[in-house]
Amino acid sequence: MKIRAFTAILVCKVIRGLAKLMGRGSSLPGKYALKICPDILSELKLPELSIAVTGSNGKTSTVEMIAHILKSNGLKVAYNKEGSNQIEGVVTFLIGDSTMGGKVKSDVVLLEADERYARRVFGYFHPKYFVINNLYRDQMTRNGHPEWIKSIIGDAIYDDMTLILNADDPLVASFGKDREGTIYFGADNLPSDTTTHEGIYNDGKYCPICKKPMEYEYYHYNHIGKFKCTSCGFERHDTDHTLTNMGESDGHAEITVDGKYEIPVFFTGIYHCYNILAAYTASVVAGIAPWKAAESLGGYILKSGRISDFTLGNVEGRLLLSKHENSVSYDRSIDVVVNDKRKKSVMIIVDAISRKYYTSDSSWLWDINFEKFRDADIDKIILAGQYCDDLAVRFDLAGIDSNKVEVFESVQGAADYCKEKLGSFLYVITCFSDKEKILSVVTRREIA
Amino acid sequence: MNVKILYLYPDFMSLYGDNGNVRILERRLKDQGFDVEIIKRTITDSAITFDDVDFVYMGSGFESNRNLVAKHLSQFKDGLVKAIDDGVPMLFTGNAYDVLGSSIMTPERDEIRCLGIFDFTVIDQIEKRFTGDVVLADTKKNDVYVGFVNRAGVLKGEGTLEFYVTKVIGSVPLTKDGVRKNNLLGVSLIGPLLLKNHKIAESFVKTICERKGTEYKEIRYPHSEKSHDKTKKALLNAEV
C-alpha cells in the first residue's frame, strides 16, 4: 500500500474520531483524506457484495431499508447513514469501516450515490449492483434536468455492474436497453392508477430513445406507468419483482409484493411503495430469501418524518413534508389534501427554497398541479413566505377563487391568521428548509 | 376582439415551468378585453403557419429536444422570418432562442444547423451544468431584468447579443445574453420570466394592443411588481 494512502486513512480516522467525540458527523474527514490521496477509493479493498442506490427521490429511505433487511439477516453492513452521498462522504464512511490496511470490514458496502457525483465515485470502484429508482424533475437549479442527470449517471455505469431498474420509469428503464442481466422492478396495474396523464407537464410523452410519441396503458403517477413507444418499440420491460397490490383499510395500509408477500406499511404513498419494492428487489438479488426480505420490511417503520400533526389554537392541522423544487413531491401532497373529503384549508409555505443557497428561481411552482385545488372542497388557501408573490400569481392563474386566497409575507402572520380566523382542518405543505418556521409556532401532536 | 397566441412545442419544450409565460400573457390580454385563442404546434405537426398570429412563444427543453426543434422549425423558417419582419411580437425563453442562431455544437461534437436569424453559435458540454441567478442590463430600454439561467452551454457571438450580464450568483459563464429583432425577444432566463419582469409583459401587451388598433389600458399587477423588486434587491445584495 502506498504511504499516501496509509496517511490518508490515518488522518481520516483521527479526524473522524475527534469529530465523533465532539458529537459531530460530517464528510470533513473524507475531504482531508482525498487531499492527501486523491485516488484513495481505489486503494480500499471492498467486500464482494456492494450495492449503490441513486435516483431523484427516496435514495436515503431505500438505502435505510436495504440496510435494515441485510442486517436483520445477519450481514454486517457499512453505509453512509448520515446521507452524506457525495464523494467526501463516501470516503468518510468507507475508511471509518476499514482496517489501517484499507480493508473494509463489513460484509456489504451499501452506498447512497448522489446522481451528480456517482460518476466521480465509480471512477474508483464499481459497485456490484446499481439500483436506479426514478428520474424526475428535482432541484433543477443544481441538476439541470432529468435527461441531463441521465447522461451523467450513464457516465457512472460500467459493464461489470448489474443494474436494478425501475421498469415503470421510461428514462430509468432506458439504461437497460441492450444490457443483458438487468433486473427490473415495477408495479402491476393498481386501483389508484389512471388511464390518462395527470399533471402540468408530461415527461413520458416522448420516447427517451427515439423521441417519438409514447403511449401508456396506465399511469401510476406522473410519467411512471406502463409505456410503449409508437415508433422504436421501446416498452416497459417485464419485471423480476413486482408490487402486485396496494391497499388501505381500517387505517391499516398493506402492500403485496410478488403476489404473495404482504407487507404492512405506515402509509401507502405510491413512491414510498417504490422505495420498498426497490429495497426488497436489491436484497433478494443480493441473496436474501424473498420471504425473509418481506418479513424484515414488515417489522420496519420508516422514520420518514414526512407527516407531523399539530394544533394551532383551535385549529387542527397536519404538515405534509414535501420538497421545494420538486413538483412530483408537491403533486403527491396535493393528492393527499384533495382525497380528504372534509372541508379543509391549505397553507403553502415557500420562504427559503434551500437551506444551502439563495435562488430567485420559482419556476418549479408552474410545474405543480395546484389546479387540483380548484375542484376540491377547499375553505381557504394561505400562501406564506418570501415567495408569496410568486405563489399569488401562480394561484391566480390556477383559476382558484381569489376570495379563498390569503397572502402573507411571514409564516408567523399566516399562523396568526389561521389561529384567529380559520374554522377548518389545516394542511400545511412545505419543505425541510421551511418546516421549522411553522412547527415552532404550533403545538405538536403525536400521530396515533 | 380575438388575439391568437402561437405556442410552439408546448409538450416538447416545456422544461422549466415555461407554460407560465403563456398563461401570464393570456391573463393580461384578457384583462385588456381580448378573447385569447392559443394555438399549439409541436414536433409531430407537419405544418406550422405564422399567418394571422399575434404572439409567438417557445420555452426551454432538453438539449436533445431543442436540437430536433432546430431541424423541425427550419422547415417553416420562411413564415417565421416574415412574421419577425412584420413585427409580430415573440418570446423565446431559456435555450429556445438557441435555434434562432447559426448553429449548435453538441458535446459529441456534432454540429446542428439552426435557423440563422441571428449570428451566434451555441457550444454545449456535459462536464458541468451552467446554472445561476442573473441580473441583465438592457441598455437600449434602460431596464434591468432578473431571473435564472439553466444551460448546457455557452453562446459565442457577443456582438449580436443584446443584454449585459451584470451579476451572476452561481455558475453562468456569460457576459452577454439575449437577442432582439423588431418585436422578437430571446433571452436565456427560464421559467415564467414575465412574472418577475412585469415591464417585459407590459411591453408585449402594449405592442399587441397597438398592432390590433385598440387602446392599451394601464393595469397594475402588484404581486408581479413586488416579486421583481424583491428579486432584484436580493440579487443585487447577494455576495458572489
Write the layout of secondary structure elements.
The complex is a heterodimer of chains A (448) and B (240).
Chain A: H1 3-21, H2 28-36, H3 40-43, E1 49-54, H4 59-72, E2 77-79, H5 87-96, E3 108-112, H6 118-121, E4 129-132, H7 140-143, H8 146-154, E5 162-166, H9 170-173, E6 183-187, E7 214-221, E8 224-229, E9 241-249, E10 252-257, E11 261-265, H10 270-285, H11 290-298, E12 307-312, E13 315-322, H12 327-339, E14 344-349, E15 378-384, H13 388-397, E16 405-408, H14 411-421, E17 425-431, H15 432-439, E18 443-445
Parallel strand pairs in A: 1-3, 1-4, 2-3, 4-5, 5-6, 6-9, 13-17, 14-15, 14-17, 15-16
Antiparallel strand pairs in A: 7-8, 9-10, 10-11, 12-13, 12-18
Chain B: E1 2-8, H1 19-31, E2 35-41, E3 55-58, H2 63-74, H3 77-85, E4 90-93, E5 103-105, E6 111-113, E7 121-124, E8 130-138, E9 143-151, E10 153-156, E11 163-170, E12 176-177, E13 179-181, E14 184-187, H4 193-196, H5 198-212, H6 222-237
Parallel strand pairs in B: 1-2, 1-3, 3-4, 4-14, 5-7
Antiparallel strand pairs in B: 5-6, 7-10, 8-9, 8-11, 11-12, 13-14
Helix pairs in contact in B: 1-5
Q: How would you explain this protein's 3D organization?
A:
The complex is a heterodimer of chains A (448) and B (240). By secondary structure, chain A is of the alpha/beta class. Chain A has helices at residues 3-21, 28-36, 40-43, 59-72, 87-96, 118-121, 140-143, 146-154, 170-173, 270-285, 290-298, 327-339, 388-397, 411-421, 432-439, and strands at 49-54, 77-79, 108-112, 129-132, 162-166, 183-187, 214-221, 224-229, 241-249, 252-257, 261-265, 307-312, 315-322, 344-349, 378-384, 405-408, 425-431, 443-445. The radius of gyration of chain A is 23 Å and the shape is globular. In chain A, 47% of the residues are buried. The model of chain B has no long low-confidence stretch (mean pLDDT 97). The chains are: A alpha/beta (448), B alpha/beta (240).
